[in-house]
Amino acid sequence: MQRYIILFFLIFFSTFSNAEIKDKIIENLINTSNLDFKFEQNINGKIENGNCTIEYPKKIFCEYARSNNKILVSNGKSLVIKTRTSYYRYPLEKTALNLILDKDFLINKINDLEERVIEKNLINFTILEKDKEINIFFDNKSFDLIGWQNTDIYQNFNITFISSIRKNRVLSKDIFKIPSQN
């Protein structure tokens, strides 16, 4: 009988702490309207880094360091990647960023998914949506978003880590303006 009581408490407290983790991540997302951060991105072994700003829902502006003036911008509808020599424009809905930048979508998915704790410091949720698999990572102490992993529209494996996160800053609305092609 004592064994069953101990087992009950282990399951109860395990479930409680898992629910608590989800609640804290969701509360953190709810209270975040925007964030800026440094990033490191690994696409099929090619590593790039820079700075990004996200404004929910679905807006992002990234400047890449040391790379032909490369920027990535989404105004919530289109995604543009521009360098000195190239210009690519995509419907945002065709990219994984459409889901990653949608705070309400993330909150709903996190509510329904089981989290996985990795080495006691990362919390991972695996989202399967419209033939896309996206792994979202949160810090186990701050409950901040710290990265994601997905396959892009060209079937490249993409891992993005973020750091030096600042939240809810005053942003210029022009930052998310889609640049011209010239």
Describe the structure.
This protein is α+β, with helices and mostly antiparallel strands. It is 24% helix and 43% strand. It has one domain: Lipoprotein localisation LolA/LolB/LppX (outer membrane lipoprotein receptor (LolB), chain A), CATH 2.50.20.10. It is built from three helices and eleven strands. It has an eleven-stranded antiparallel sheet, with no helix packed on it. It starts with a helix and ends in a 15-residue tail after the last strand.
Topology:
Elements: H1 2-30, E1 34-43, E2 46-55, E3 59-64, E4 71-75, E5 78-82, E6 87-91, H2 97-100, H3 103-112, E7 116-118, E8 122-129, E9 132-139, E10 145-151, E11 157-167
Antiparallel strand pairs: 1-2, 1-11, 2-3, 3-4, 4-5, 5-6, 7-8, 8-9, 9-10, 10-11
Note the main attributes of this structure.
outer membrane lipoprotein receptor (LolB), chain A, 3 helices, 43% strand
Structural class from helices and strands?
A: alpha+beta
Count of domains: 1
Instruction: Supply the CATH superfamily name.
Output: Lipoprotein localisation LolA/LolB/LppX
Which of globular, elongated, flat, extended, rod-shaped describes the shape?
A: globular
Query: Which sequence of strands runs across the widest sheet?
Result: 6-5-4-3-2-1-11-10-9-8-7
Secondary-structure element series: HEEEEEEHHEEEEE
Query: Per DSSP, what share of the residues sits in E-state strands of 2 or more residues?
Result: 35-45%
* Radius of gyration based on Cα positions: 18 Å
Q: CATH topology, anyone?
A: outer membrane lipoprotein receptor (LolB), chain A
Outline of the structure:
With 182 residues, the chain is α+β, with helices and mostly antiparallel strands. Helices cover 24% and strands 43% of the residues. The protein contains three helices and eleven strands.
